[in-house]
Amino acid sequence: MFDIDAGLHNMLLLLGDDGMVAELVSRAKVGPTHAVVTDVVIVELASEQQKFTDFQIRRE
To answer: pTM of the predicted model, to two decimals?
Structure first.
């Protein structure tokens, strides 16, 4: 999560069952109570891009 122009923006990487991913995406388009969701961008990765060798949690 990061702050751009005083707005919060979230980036998620979702891997898993297509139905469960679709459900989470549909909920993200609505957002929680009192949220104002203006855009949801979906980028599908090729299978060779779905391999990871490292994991980090960073606080900026």
So the answer is: 0.56
